[in-house]
Amino acid sequence: MDMTTLLVQLLNAVQYGLLLFLLASGLTLIFGIMNVINLAHGSFYMIGAYMAFGLVPLVQTAFGGGFFVALAIGLVLAVILGWLLEWLFFSYLYERDHLQQVLMTYGLILVFEEVRSLLFGDDAHGVALPPMLSGVIALGDLMTYPVYRLFVSGVCLVLALLMFYVLNRTRLGMLIRAGSVNREMVQSLGVDIKALYRVVFAVGVALAVLAGMIAAPVSSVYPGMGNQILIICFVVVVIGGIGSIKGALVAALIIGVVETFGQAMFPELAGMLVYLLMAAVLLIKPNGLFRAGQ
C-alpha cells in the first residue's frame, strides 16, 4: 500500500469513525444517563437519511434553498420528534426493567419501518451531493478525495468539540454528568430530572437524525439501514464505556480504523474484526475504556 492509498484509507477511517461517534454519542447519553436500552436509536438514523431524501427536493421547490436549508429544517423536526417521543413513550420506561424497554423500542422500530414503507416505498434511493461540496481534492497524480467527505468529518468534529464544551464547561453538562453517576442525588438537590431527561433524549435523537442526513449523500437510502448501524453503535458504546462521551469518540475512531483497513487488507475477516476487538477490550476492561460521565 503506497502513501497516497494509505492517506485515502486513513481519511475514510476518520470520516467513518467521526460519523459513528455522532450517532453513538446520542445512544450513550440515553443509555448511560437515562438507563434506557433504546433499540429504536438506529431508526432515528434512518429517519434522518429519509429526511434528506424527502426534504432536499421539497425545499428546493418551495423555498429555492438546498441541502443546508433542509439540514436546518431536519434538525428542528428531529428535536421536536425526540421531545414528543420521550413525553409519549420513554418517560414511562425509566422505572421499568430492561425487557420492557427492549419490547417497546423494538415495537417503535416496526412502526417506523411501516411508516417509511408507506411514505417512500421499499426501493433504495440516492441523495445528490450539495453542488458547492461536490468537488474533489487531488492526492498525488492518480487519486482524489471527495470534498463532501471532508465536510462530514468537519461537521462531526465541530459537534464533538461542542459536546465536550457543554459537558465540561456548562451547568447543563454538570447536571448531565452528575445524572449519569447518581440520578437520585441530583433529583434530591431539586433538579427536575424529568426535564433533564427530555433534553438529553431530544439531543440524542437530533444527533442520530443529523448523522443520517449528512451520511445520505455518500451512501444509499434504503429500508432497514437503521438496524445495521444500530449494532455497530452498541459496540461503540460498550467499548468506550456506557455513559462516556470521550469513550464513544475514542471507540468510534478505533472502530473506524479497524473496519476501514480491515476491509482493505483482510476482506475475509472484515465482518468479525470489530467484534474480536470488543471481546479483547472487555477481557481487559469489563466496563469499557472510560467510566460514565467522562
Distance between the termini: 37 Å
> Tell me about the biggest sheet?
2 strands, antiparallel
N-to-C SSE series? HHHHEEHHHHHHH
Gyration radius from CA atoms, angstroms: 19 Å
Q: What is the β-strand count?
A: 2
How would you sum up this structure, described in words?
- Helix content is 73%, strand content 3%.
- With 294 residues, it is an all-alpha fold.
- It has one domain.
- It has a two-stranded antiparallel ribbon with strand order 1-2.
- A hairpin with a 3-residue loop joins strand 1 and strand 2.
- The protein is globular and about 65 Å long.
- 39% of the residues are buried.
Structure described in brief:
The chain has eleven helices and two strands. The chain has 294 residues and is mostly helical. α1 packs antiparallel against α10.
What topology does this entry show?
Elements: H1 3-34, H2 41-62, H3 67-88, H4 98-120, E1 136-139, E2 143-146, H5 147-169, H6 171-181, H7 183-188, H8 193-215, H9 225-240, H10 245-265, H11 270-284
Antiparallel strand pairs: 1-2
Helix pairs in contact: 1-5, 1-6, 1-8, 1-9, 1-10, 2-3, 2-4, 2-8, 2-9, 3-8, 5-6, 9-10, 9-11, 10-11
List keywords for this structure.
294 residues; mainly alpha; two-stranded antiparallel ribbon
